[in-house]
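=== RUN LOG ===
request id: a7f3
mode: sequence -> structure
chains: 1
length: 184
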Amino acid sequence: MRNKSDNMLIKTLKALALVAIVAIAFFAGSQISKDSVKPQTVLVTKTEVRYQTVEKPILQHVAKPVVEYVKLAGRTPAELRNFNDLDELKRWVGNRMNATTIRFQSSKDEVDCDDYAREMQSAALADGYIVSFQIIGRSEYNALFKNKLPSSQPLHAINLAIIGNDIHYIEPQTGEITFAMRLD
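=== RESULT ===
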């Protein structure tokens, strides 16, 4: 049997062991923070937004017109004008008639008098001259020009140039120039 002193020693050792376990648990608990213990089933995501405020002074902007000079391809006349005299008109038409025009078109497209008259008018404008497009009746055309229109052609397209007070007609297909009338 055990004696009383042995029992007392065992009780004392048990009490000391219990105090030691409680002390260890206490110190261990104080070292673990609430943030470090997380449930295993919860995922916590932390999003961080960083920004910086930048202060800029307000500047006053004064708009200035921009002048840009553009070099145009080809010639652009500064001012359109009539021919100065009949010789100038004859030289211009002669140069025009000496140029070869090649047309690329389908066989369905017919080039006729109005096409020639519009081409001459466009060429005159490109060179800075005023030449108009004119429709003339067959009888008036036959009275003024060397070549005659057939009876199947009641109207014909030509060009008109003004020199001073004189009106001159131009046959754009042949280059023939004829006096038509005086304005005053």
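=== NOTES ===
Residues 86-98+111-182 form one domain.
The chain is about 35% helix and 15% strand.
=== END ===
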